[in-house]
Amino acid sequence: MDKKLLMSIFVVVLFIGAFLFINKNNNQQNAMDNIQDNDIEIIPIEHTTMVLKWAGKIIYVDPVGGAKVFVGQEAPDIILLTHDHSDHFDVKTLQAVAKDKTLIVAPMKVADLVPNTVPGTLLVAKNGQKTNQQGFKIEVIPAYNLPDSEKDFHPKGEGNGYVLETNGKRIYISGDTAGTSEVHNLKNIDIAFVAMNLPYTMSIEKATEAVLEFKPKKVYPYHYRTPTGFSDVVKFKKLVNEKNSAIEVVQLNWYPK
Questions:
Q1: C-beta separation of 195 from 177 below 8 A
Q2: Which of 18, 155, 181, 186 has the most beta carbons within 10 angstroms of its beta carbon?
Q3: What is the four-CA torsion angle of 222, 197, 187, 132, rounded to 10 degrees?
Q4: CA-wise closest residue to 36 among 12, 54, 60, 19
């Protein structure tokens, strides 16, 4: 290979690597590993996986990554599963972390994939369903792409978002969704975890529109890794606060590696 061509390729690769490194660091600016939000402790694990400690209960959301990433965490009382994609659902992880006491809440498509070897009680939760479990009101919010199509990454009816409520506080967990009418029409949300990574969920602009519409007191960007890097969550915060400074945008460290 010509030496000049080889050097040019090397420079291009070096530039791309530096760009992605800088972009990642910019998007992690002021990120916290975990946070105590009044009576709720929020522990980001990675991407979409988190642990919530709230009202004496331990809640896992989309546990993946194997038992090793949950070392030191208390066993879950509730596990919320949003859909069947591998960055949200992993049978081996579920088998490792679920206990006999654990309630596993999942859409039908996911529930069909959970083997009998997984401990705990499995509750199938359909879009629009409301249920009371372990002191929490759980409302299932449809999570899907727009325009809705069976060829989409997330067709309507297959995936769940969740609103959890107890002690007068409401938390919304988006799962993988577009800025649908169901998202825009959310009410009285204290804390929102909102996904933003094209082409799978929302752009930061669409996420901004949704957040400005349903006006959570706080919003935590999560699930913002894209096929080419990371969504600009710093810009998302700027866009939100330019229109509504009362909405607090909090960034946690969802990508520790």
A1: yes
A2: 186
A3: -60
A4: 54
